[in-house]
Amino acid sequence: MAMKWYKQNVWAAVIVTLVRIYLGWKWLEPGWHKLTGGFDATGFLKKAVDTPLADKTTGALLYPNYTYFIEHFALPNVKLINIMIPLGEFLIGLGLILGGLTLFAGFFGLMLNTLFLLAGTVSTNPWLMVIGFLVFTAGANAGRFGLDYYLLPLIGKYWAKLTHRERTDVGAGTGAGTGRIVLK
Length: 184
Description:
The chain has helices at 2-8, 10-37, 42-50, 64-74, 78-98, 102-118, 125-137, 148-162, and strands at residues 165-168, 180-183. The chain is mainly alpha-helical.
């Protein structure tokens, strides 16, 4: 019952919108600074490889696959990483602030925070993950007061047409893809 309220109630949408905008700013600002001020992840990646997260008693790596990934993929392709991180942060922030493709932005924000944590950086990442989880679990209600109100029905119609299904709306007015899909 609480989750139904959280995912469908207009007042819950207001609260989540405020939280979503705050979280969006926390992503947009550093992304913009990295895009405009120059960004190089080389030092960060080298430190993640040189001092990976390890068990204090045994010294065994906690995430050996991720350390391997950083060493053998991210570092050799640091130019790509230098573009993806700032652009990703900026687009996550923009999506959250505008309420456009909110669930995608929230998901990728959670993923980026997870990658930073696995590399050994705590900083604000746990806090941003908690807030991101609150936005993500609100579902379509998180974008109710944003571009998703208009985008999700259009995406739903396009998806129904693409998959040769007929969409019938149940609960109009949420703009959150609340329709059910019926096979033709």
